Structures are given as structure tokens and as C-alpha cells.
Amino acid sequence: MNPELFFTKNTKAALQNDPPGEWMPPVPKYCIPLSAGYPAQSLVPYNEMNEAVKDLIEEEKDLPFQYLGSKKVNTVKKFVRERLVERGVVLLEKEILVTAGAIQGIDLISRTFIDRDTWIVVESPSYMEGLEVFRNYTDHFITVPIDEYGMQTEELEKTLKNRKEKNLPMPKLVYTIPSFHNPTGTTMSIDRRRHLLELASEFNFLIIEDDAYGELYFDERPTPIKAMDSGSRVFYLGSFSKTIAPGLRVGYVAARSDLIEPLAWFKKDLDHPFAEATLGSYLIQTDMKKRFEMLRKVYQQNCKTLISSLEKYMGELATWQQPSGGYFVWVNIPGINTSEILVEAMQAGVSYVPGKHFFVHEQEGLSYLRLSFSFVSREEMVSAVEILSQVVKKHLNN
Amino acid sequence: MNPELFFTKNTKAALQNDPPGEWMPPVPKYCIPLSAGYPAQSLVPYNEMNEAVKDLIEEEKDLPFQYLGSKKVNTVKKFVRERLVERGVVLLEKEILVTAGAIQGIDLISRTFIDRDTWIVVESPSYMEGLEVFRNYTDHFITVPIDEYGMQTEELEKTLKNRKEKNLPMPKLVYTIPSFHNPTGTTMSIDRRRHLLELASEFNFLIIEDDAYGELYFDERPTPIKAMDSGSRVFYLGSFSKTIAPGLRVGYVAARSDLIEPLAWFKKDLDHPFAEATLGSYLIQTDMKKRFEMLRKVYQQNCKTLISSLEKYMGELATWQQPSGGYFVWVNIPGINTSEILVEAMQAGVSYVPGKHFFVHEQEGLSYLRLSFSFVSREEMVSAVEILSQVVKKHLNN
């Protein structure tokens, strides 16, 4: 019995891509993981979570463990709604769908709107797990480069005009991470955000605005594209993974209710009431504004340390851009293939994510790598960058 | 902007069906919910879950809240593997995929193997949420009736031979709940289990064996179809929802590794590490054999109470079959349309699930209803059946 004979056309197409999550060899324990895109132990409120669970069970007993779940699930929605109002996005409750991390939002949107005939636009580079999900639905990608002001919407406009003239298939969706972009750390300018919305209306496409890092600005808070979305073309994706705990897997999608309804339809029963109730209980106990402030300060200081280490050890070897928020610094090391030296770097004691994994066309990213300042201590960061610089120097001198 | 213009073909087809979960009007609070297919409060180990979370966090700190999650996730797999060995199913760890409830297993299998061209076989009646998920992928159902020995595999054989002769499309998958079937409570005989496997080999299809109720036998433990699956055509679905807590949303799929791999591919990141780790921590603390025994006794006694109430109040109005395990009794009331009297029954103080929702062809189920003996107290059960009998009598006399 050959299972492939039973696969659907889509499954066959999807499985021709690289298997998901296979983009990194295992990181040895002795390594300083600048690859790690998650919060440091000290920033995960695990004791508070313990309290949250305790209170939840004392108050609601079996409810959080039943299908229909606890009333605390509504607390999550309420928090999201109120927080979004402060960020300029005014929504009804029925316009918010709580999901198992922002990635379930990407999956549900894809499932509803993307099949093997669909063209979509992604930034180049883009969030690698996002690309993996999209590849499960289509191989038709249009890529738009990023510069220091985010997605080059002028380039997108040219491409769209050109495709229209030539009668080529037009994209249905544009996926963007406008604020503290993963992996580049850049933020889209307000003019380009407006331009993107204009293009959406002119060329009739929907936008996925992935704002997973939106709360983690250092100085200035960017205005979400969704806040200017008069045509209701934007799916706004948010997440508690970067600000509370990734393992809870709670995120959300916000959009016009007739765009949310089909997602809710497919999500049916792919729910996780206990995790959502735990988060709800935690949110009630926590001064989240204070927490956001604390996180911003810690990450800003972490970022400064990473940047000054790069200046000290790699100033003549590499270039990078100063992020204004988020988790990552995106480094370009001309003359180096970052995938090729990864194992050696890990043996020397430092890991990173090679740039190629963030590109639809991998060869565009060979000299790049992504460093995270969210997870390791500042002392470790300094050592890690020094180790990395030595590995790089050795290869440049060969 | 009309969102429908952006839908895929599949989305358009799926959304033409009834919206998911809309099969029951809200059950008023004063009602005795014989409709409730979940465990009673006293059977949900919420205090033990509190302990499990406390121990988990003390031992592993932030780990259960990170993406990669805790080591306790492996405890779940290990438990499943060892338990399945006792039930005659010997598997490698890589042949087990932990999922967000058994329903995510149904969804992942559907996603991998079913599209709008695929024919599948379901029992008539069948698990309504399962049918809802399948309908998101196809409308091509072949139904096979159930009698007191489960799915009538002789009927399936006739249908398959007939389709083959006529050169009609053949089904790729057969979905069955062989033990303590939802909603009928029946159990497939061992001969029919073997016959189904023979048919799978002869007519080249895969089998989904949904064993969500498998641990809840009253006297005799049925042998899973998977235990006899020499051809490796069976996806075995298990769940902790009926034996521990539905709101944790932890289930699993077990199958040959080349059938599991594509599911794992699509599942990517649709994980829930904190809930899995909590379950792992709970399993370490708990004598599960003792717990299973306790549950069997309670549910058997509940079932007896429900059946004797039916005998007392509805013996002349209705027929049903004695279940040998599970959660449900399936009642046939000739001359009554159970959907039509539901609101009145709820006003009188009792809820149930009307039979039609369990059928692909709803008209086949009009006189049936499903009663659950898992949730309400025995005293309430007796009152509820009395109330139901009065509503039924009133309608039969009209």
C-alpha cells in the first residue's frame, strides 16, 4: 500500500517542498542560541501563570476543562478589543477570532482564500514559518523587497501594473509584517502603509498585517495598517507569544465580520479552552501596560548590547540596520555563505538562523543571518558575537 | 468589497452546508441537559490538574510556556504507546501524533486525503462533529447503516461491488466508530471488524477508527480494528476528552509512519505545548488504570439508571438498545419528529440531541434522539426521562 496514491493533489504539491521546521540542525546545549526567537526564562511569567491557574480552578472548578470552556475566554477577547482601541483599531467583539497562536490565523486565512491557483504577495525576506504555511496551499509567490522603510510598495505597484498589462494572474492576498519585521527588524513608513491600502483598493486584494511584535517598540509606536483600513481589506494578526508566553499558543485575527466568519467555520473545534482560560485569568491579575513597558525597556537594552557588540567585533565585516523594536537584528556579511558556516559556528559556541530560510528564492539570502536579542543574557550576547566574528574572519581569510 | 469573490472553490462549497455547531438551540439553565456529551463536574479532576500544573511549573519553570515545550509532552506519547500495547496495538513512537483532540486528527487526515473529488464512507448515523469536518472537504458520502453489531459491512460490500461494476468512483476512506458508537452506543462485532479490513484490502481504501470511547466498556473490552491491521490501512484515533477532560483538547492519531508524516507536516505549529505538558504532568501523578475502572463503574451505573427510567416511563412509546459502554443511549420514538418537539421539551425541562443531526440524509433520523448518561446526576436522569415521556405522550395523543 503506497500512501501517496491516496494523497490529494494539494498534498502531493505541498509535500514537494522542504519539510516544515527542518531549517535548523539541532542546536547543541553548550551553544549560545542567538537563533532563539522566544523570550528569556526570566521574561516568562511562569509563577504568575501558576497563580492564574490556581485562581481559575478555585473559581470555575471543572469549567476550563470542559468543551465550552470558561468565562475567562471572553476576558481575552475583551482585553484584545480594548488594547486595539488604544492602538487606533476600533472593532466589535464578533470581528475578533482568538486562535492557537498567530500561525493558526495564517493557516485559517490560507485555508479560506488560497488554493493552488492563487497568487499571493510576500515580503522578501519574510517570516519563515509563515512561508511554510503558505506553501501548503500555493506555490505562486510574488516577492517584494524590503528596505529601511519596510516593504517597497512602489515596487509592488510596478509589479502589479506590469502583471495587469500582460494579463497575468493577479494576487489575492498580500502578507506583511509592517512593524519590527521578522527577520529584518524594519518598520514600514506611514506613507507606504497608506500606499499599500490604496493599492489594495486599486488592484482588489486583501492584506494580512502580522503585528506579532507590535507592542515591543522602543520609542515610537507605529500605527497599525488596520487603523487606516477604511475598505476593510485587512486581516490584523496579533499574538501573546512575544509578550507573555509562546507555549500558551494564543493569538488572534481581527477583520470585518464577514471575513472572520469563514475562518471561524474552519476553526471549529480546533480550540484550546484551557490555555485560553489560563491566559484570561492571568490578564485579570496583571497590569499589562506595566508589563509591556518593562518588556520594551529590557528588549531595547538587549538590542543596544547586541548592536554595540556587532560594532565592536564585526563593524568591518558586516552591515545591519538599527531595529526600532521587536526581537531581531538582520546582519549581512558579504563574502560569507551563512548556511555553510553554521555548523562550524555552532561548534564554536553560537547559533543563528541563516538568511536563506526567510526567502522564497533562497539564493537571495545567502549572506544574511538573523540574530535574536530576546533570549540570551547580555553577557552571553557579547561573547556570542565575538565567537561569531572569529568564525567569520577565519572564512574571509581563507 | 465582497469577500465571497476571494473564497476558494472549496470554501464556497463548504460554506453552502449548515454552519458548524448550529445544530442545537441554546439550552436554558433550568433544563436537565441529557444533550450534554461531556463528563460530569465530579468526574473532571480539576483539583488534580491544579496540582499537575503546580508540579510542572516547579520542576520545569518556563519550559511548558515556550514553543518547544516541556519534556512532559513525551510523557503523553509514552502513556499512549504503553496503553495501546495493553489493548493489542503495538506501535513505535513515531507512529503516534498527539493532536488537539481527536477532532484535529479527523481534520488532518481529511486535509491530507480528501478533496472535492474524494468519496468517503460514513456510518449512518455517525458522529455529527466528524461529519461537519468531512463536509469542509467533500460532499461525496456513501452511507452504511448500523445495526446492533455495528456497521453492516455486508451492505458496504454490496455497495462497493455495485459501484465497481458500474465504474462509479470508489471511496478512499471509511470512517467508523466501532466501539460504543456515537450516537447509537453499539459495538461492531469482531467478525465485521475483520470483514471491514478485508474489504479495505480488496477495494483499496483506508480506515479511520475513532475509538474516543474505547476505555469506557462496561464488561468486555473490544479489540481495536487497529490491533488486527496487518495491512496498515487504519488510522486509530484516541482521546483524553472522555476519560480526563475535554477542555485540555488532547487526542492522538496512530498509524504507519508514512501515513502519520503528512499529517504532522500540516499540523506544524498548530500545537498546544502547555495543555500537553499539563496532561503529561497529570498522567505521572495518576493511577490511570484505577481511574479508568472508576469511570467504567460510574458510567455503567448511570447507564443502568437511564435505561430503567426509559423502561419505566417510555417502555411503550419508544425503543432503544442496551449500550455496552460509552456515553449514550439512542432512542427511537415512532410517530414523533424529535426536532419539532425539542423546544417544547426544553421548556418542560429536558434537552437531548435530535437524531437528524447524526445523518448525512437528515430525514432518516427524524424519530431518533440521543440521550447522554455522562453528565447529569442519576436523580436528574430519572426526572428528565419522566418529563420527556410527558412531552412525547402529549404529542402522540394529538
Automatic annotation (TrEMBL), chains A, B:
SUPFAM superfamilies: PLP-dependent transferases
Gene3D superfamilies assigned: Aspartate Aminotransferase, domain 1 (3.90.1150.10), Type I PLP-dependent aspartate aminotransferase-like (Major domain) (3.40.640.10)
Keywords of the record: Aminotransferase, Pyridoxal phosphate, Transferase
Keyword Ribonucleoprotein appears in the UniProt entry: no
Single Gene Ontology MF annotation: pyridoxal phosphate binding
GO BP annotations, alphabetical order: alpha-amino acid metabolic process
One Pfam family named in its UniProt record: Aminotran_1_2
Domain annotation Aminotransferase class I/classII large: ranges: 59-387
KW GTP-binding (keyword) present: no
Co-factor(s): pyridoxal 5'-phosphate
InterPro entries referenced in this protein's UniProt entry, alphabetically: Aminotransferase_I/II_large, Class-I_PLP-dep_aminotransf, PyrdxlP-dep_Trfase, PyrdxlP-dep_Trfase_major, PyrdxlP-dep_Trfase_small
PANTHER family per the UniProt record, alphabetical: AMINOTRANSFERASE, KYNURENINE_ALPHA-AMINOADIPATE AMINOTRANSFERASE, MITOCHONDRIAL
Name this protein carries in UniProt: PLP-dependent aminotransferase family protein
